Amino acid sequence: MRIDGQPFRTIWPGREPGVTQIIDQRHLPHRLVIEDLVTVGDFARAISEMHVRGAGLIGATAGYAMNAAAQAARDSGWREQLATAAATLLATRPTARNLAWALERQRTATAKAASLSAAREVTAKVAREIADEDADFCRRIGEHGLELIRRLSQAKGGEPVNILTHCNAGWLAFVDYGSATAPIYAAHQAGIPVHVWVDETRPWLQGSRLTAWELGQEGVAHTLIPDNTGGHLMQHGLVDLVIVGADRVAASGDAANKIGTYLKALAAQDNGVPFYVALPCSTFDWDIEDGLREIPIERRSEEEIKWITGLSRSGGLDSVLIAPPSTPGANYGFDVTPARLITGLITERGLTPARREEILKLYPEQRADNRPQKTTTQQKR
Ligand code: MRU
Fold first, then answer.
1. Contact by Cβ (8 Å): 82, 65
2. Which of these, 105, 268, 285, 323, could form a disulfide with 275 (CB 3.0-4.6 Å)?
3. Tens of pLDDT along 68-95?
4. CB atoms within 10 A of CB 312
């Protein structure tokens, strides 16, 4: 997508060998800061401290990180060194499925490498493939979701379709296009009038800092709302459709996404508003059936709730305390929306009801009898 009219991805190989570049999202929307990542420690910090975030981009970053690990490895014991790097990366953030998915993909590739130099070559290739596929999956999610928006637009006689989204499942959460935003960008480019209600998404403000910014860069009409406004808008017929992203989706269709998503799904059901979850195949966790009990939910520092950072009137970035210093806070990063509240999933292979049997019709290779048996040493999150 574009920044000031220039096409950008969120992650790309730098010009210097061994350098990967990212947009450090902590500074958006106020500053565009490009950061160089070189060591596995750089990559792990970038993921855990959210310089990069969003399931797809976390996966793509892990892909490049494993190439950095291979470049830095010494000949003696290189397989163990790669395994240690993978364990470090896997521990950075627990909920996004794409992280373990990307690491597993690199592990499978390096298992076949006969030497360290072959491992260096193959991890570079796989990192590129993960990033390119992520962008392509999102582009295809956009094509399938576009038809949904087109039908709503026709039903409204061409009046703008009002879409509510939570957090940032935009291109900044992936390599390009986004999941929840891809259908919106596709509709906008097809000349279908759309308007997006952007939940600000406390406490990290992915909605106000990132989604509002990227929609603005693409010229998509949008309005920022506090997180607790969606129910009121739905009661008054001001939301035609909810599209959110996902960090991990169980085989049953239960979907983990940014904290607060579940409340939007409840409000949507009460008001008869269609509620869709957009995701690429890399976000499915085929080993998990009961999302509510089995998806690990990240808890982050209470500092993120009690302090807020923004641009001060003097033009610098400032943090201020917005709660009594001694008040304890609970910062759950995600919640799980049960499949029964989800109208459908928008995937790169098409739309499907959020039900095991229906999902497997799109992904028949994931049926138990078609899946390779896991070895005990394989990573599992
Ligand atoms: O904590 P984040 O910013 O990494 O969480 C991201 C989300 O939860 C987004 O809502 C997104 O939908 C899922 S990532 C594609």
1. no
2. 268
3. 999 999 999 999 999 999 999 999 999 9
4. 11
